[in-house]
Specification:
Layout (H helix, E strand, L loop, with lengths): L4 E4 L2 E3 L2 E3 L4 E2 L3 E2 L4 E3 L2 E4 L3 E4 L7 H12 L6 E3 L5 H4 L2 H7 L4 E4 L1 H10 L8 E3 L5 E3 L4 E6 L9 E5 L4 E3 L21 H4 L1 H12 L3 H10 L7 E3 L6 E2 L1 H14 L5 E8 L5 H15 L5 E5 L5 H10 E11 L2 E2 L1 H12 L5 E8 L6 H11 L4 E3 L4 E3 L8 H16 L1
Parallel strand pairs: 8-9, 9-10, 10-11, 15-16, 18-19, 18-20, 20-22, 22-23, 22-24
Antiparallel strand pairs: 1-2, 2-7, 3-6, 4-5, 7-8, 12-13, 13-14, 14-15, 16-17, 20-21
The structure holds MU-OXO-diiron.
The site of MU-OXO-diiron has 8 residues, from helix 2.
């Protein structure tokens, strides 16, 4: 059974929603599933914008057949060749052999890598700024390499200023009946997940995201149709555009402190609790605390993108850094997180190593990270004589946040 909805009278959402999936990309926990959006532009010529993940193929074809109402699509625009969007390309070509696939040279390279069917005579290659008229709808193609893969491209419907934005402006979270962001409480229901989605999936490629957004010019789209999550309309367009300029430039949204800590027997955690308490008493109230062994790293990464300050606290383990913290800090480096004020708390009972490893990763593997003080090191447990040093660290953190 179909569940199509109109984005405009001539543009239909024909995607699907998977609320059963536990891990996106087999990595990122999903509490409420995810949508795989596809859109059908019905004009003199008909263009399908993307397909969907294999898991929602049945929903997709029910929606597509209903929206087509017996007509045949002329074009399949492939915004992104990651399998969560391209799983049905071959089946589309089998059902409608006359369809032309629109993409760029990288798109067709990747189709050849993922599929074995013959592309001869089926392709229409586009470059930056190329346009295609469907009748009353005019499409302009903008290359958006590395938002999230190298072949990604945006399609702008120029008569109504509707942007088909590929992974950009998408979010984790399924479809629950309301298609549009202005028909639901987007900030409450989706914003944190949109941040977690962006920062972990596309966060590494901030400069490329900014370059792609610049190509669209200064006028905000009237509607943004991403490949995941609600269709953006109304105030949410401005909200997300503003968030993207912060996230892509690695600029914190708010001044506040994220404590990310690991602790085996509670001694490192006790220092973190004391430090957070001191920082709070010195006037910092936006404080967030995560045990890296308990909270998935993708949530902590999103929080570190959001806030200006981060405290990393962990014990030594096997003459190295505690595993879960090692993974978090290396992921921060991999995602190019920069421009944050950092404090380090470390523990070690016989050969302390955590402090030097965390400091090295922060100072040598990341850019524009400011260490507020030398690492605060405890050997097994904090001693009373270390209280002044911890007070001084709290003072530095609070002065930096409030300054
Ligand atoms: Fe939603 Fe990069 O795929």
């Amino acid at each position: 059974m179909d569940s199509i909805q109109n984005v405009t009278p001539q543009i239909a959402w024909v995607g699907g929603s998977d609320r059963r999936l536990a891990l996106f990309e087999n990595m990122f926990p999903l509490e409420n599933g995810i949508t795989y959006n596809a859109y059908l532009i019905l004009d003199e010529k008909i263009a399908l914008v993307d397909t969907v993940d294999a898991s929602v193929t049945r929903q997709f074809f029910a929606n597509l057949e209903a929206a087509l109402d017996g007509r045949a699509p002329d074009y399949l625009i492939v915004s992104h060749m990651e399998p969560d969007h391209c799983a049905n390309i071959e089946e589309i070509c089998r059902r409608w052999p006359g369809i032309k696939i629109i993409g760029n040279s990288k798109t067709f390279q990747f189709i050849g890598q993922f599929f074995d069917f013959d592309l001869t005579g089926r392709t229409l290659e586009v470059k930056e700024g190329d346009e295609l008229s469907l009748g009353k709808h005019n499409l302009r193609f903008h290359m958006a390499p590395m938002v999230h893969w190298p072949e990604v491209m945006f399609t702008l419907e120029t008569t109504r200023n509707i942007l088909f934005s590929a992974d950009a402006f998408g979010t984790f979270g399924g479809y629950f009946g309301n298609l549009f962001s202005d028909e639901l409480d987007y900030e409450t229901l989706y914003l944190d997940e949109a941040r977690r989605y962006y920062t972990n999936i596309v966060g590494k490629f901030g400069p490329q995201v900014l370059a792609a957004l610049k190509k669209l010019g200064g006028t905000a789209p009237s509607i943004i149709c991403p490949l995941h999550g609600p269709v953006l309309r109304g105030d949410t367009v401005e909200l997300l555009t503003d968030k993207y300029t912060h996230w892509a430039a690695y600029q914190p949204e708010k001044r506040g402190v994220v404590f990310a800590y690991a602790s085996m027997y509670g001694n490192t955690e006790a220092v973190v609790n004391k430090l957070a308490s001191l920082v709070a008493q010195k006037g910092v109230h936006d404080i967030h605390m995560y045990d890296v062994s308990k909270t998935h790293y993708s949530t902590i990464i999103a929080e570190i993108f959001k806030y200006s300050h981060v405290v990393l606290a962990a014990p030594t383990y096997n003459l190295h850094l505690y595993n879960a913290m090692d993974m978090l800090v290396r992921d921060m480096a991999a995602l190019n997180i920069r421009n944050r004020d950092v404090a380090i708390v470390a523990n070690g009972s016989w050969v302390p190593m955590a402090h030097t490893i965390m400091q090295k990763l922060v100072e040598e593997e990341m850019k524009d990270m400011r260490l507020l003080a030398p690492p605060f090191l405890i050997c097994s447990a904090m001693k009373p004589q270390q209280q002044p040093e911890l007070e001084a660290l709290a003072e530095k953190i609070s002065a930096s946040v409030c300054g």
